[in-house]
């Protein structure tokens, strides 16, 4: 979020400030420069709306996990050209709000990893839940990786999966990774419900 704020909104605001300075110094061209400022402002507003939706996705709180994940699928297709097949069958009322938000964030993070590291433009997300547990799988057929090396080695890509594992454990869940170089990756998360 901090990077998005800096790179998206921060740079746009800087550009608008520079345009206003030019307008102050070049009075005859004020109308053209102000049109540019207004166009920049519209871009900032669109970016802000997109970021707000990313942080608080439509439907997650009111409609449930399945509609929010469907929105996420559309979002990844339009923003990152990642096609995601979603299969979600859960008992919505069995999943507390905190866990619902966590599952959404973890699926989003794992799909971002697919975009950044897998080398493919397709992933599958399967979510199954009853009143006792919910299980989530995020699968890609990309380049895969050496899991133990990624988990414990000095690689710069280790923090994301370590963070996922840590957040799952904090909720009493289990996280597993099935991958190897050239064989894609399967990330599985499972949480107990009703406790």
Secondary-structure blueprint of this entry?
Layout lengths: L1 H24 L4 H26 L9 H16 L2 E7 L7 H22 L3 E8 L3 E8 L6 H6 L5 H13 L3 E6 L5 E8 L3
Parallel strand pairs: 1-2
Antiparallel strand pairs: 2-3, 3-5, 4-5
Q: Could you write a compact summary of the structure shown?
A:
The protein is α+β, with helices and mostly antiparallel strands and 195 residues long. It has helices at residues 2-25, 30-55, 65-80, 97-118, 147-152, 158-170; strands at residues 83-89, 122-129, 133-140, 174-179, 185-192.
Structure description:
The chain has a 5-stranded mixed beta sheet with strand order 1-2-3-5-4, covered by helices on one side. With 195 residues, it is α+β, with helices and mostly antiparallel strands. It is built from 6 helices and 5 strands, in the order αααβαββααββ. 19% of the residues are buried. It is elongated and about 70 Å long. Strand 1, helix 4 and strand 2 form a beta-alpha-beta unit. Helix 1 runs antiparallel to helix 2. Helices cover 55% and strands 19% of the residues. It starts with a helix and ends with a strand. About 4% of the residues have low confidence.
């Amino acid at each position: 979020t901090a990077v998005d704020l800096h790179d998206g909104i921060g740079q746009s605001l800087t550009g608008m400030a520079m345009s206003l300075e030019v307008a102050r110094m070049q009075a005859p061209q004020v109308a053209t420069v102000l049109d540019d400022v207004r166009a920049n402002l519209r871009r900032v507003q669109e970016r802000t709306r997109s970021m707000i939706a990313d942080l608080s996705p439509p439907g997650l709180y009111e409609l449930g996990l399945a509609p929010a994940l469907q929105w996420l699928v559309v979002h990844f297709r339009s923003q990152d050209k990642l096609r995601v097949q979603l299969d979600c069958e859960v008992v919505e009322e069995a999943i507390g709000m905190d866990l619902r938000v966590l599952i959404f964030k973890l699926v989003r993070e794992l799909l971002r990893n697919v975009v950044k590291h897998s080398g493919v433009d397709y992933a599958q997300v399967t979510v199954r839940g009853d009143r006792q547990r919910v299980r989530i799988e995020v699968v890609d057929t990309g380049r895969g990786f050496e899991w133990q090396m990624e988990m414990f080695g000095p690689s710069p890509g280790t923090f994301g999966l370590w963070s996922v594992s840590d957040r799952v454990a904090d909720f009493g869940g289990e996280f597993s990774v099935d991958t190897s170089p050239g064989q894609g990756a399967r990330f599985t998360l499972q949480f107990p419900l009703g406790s």
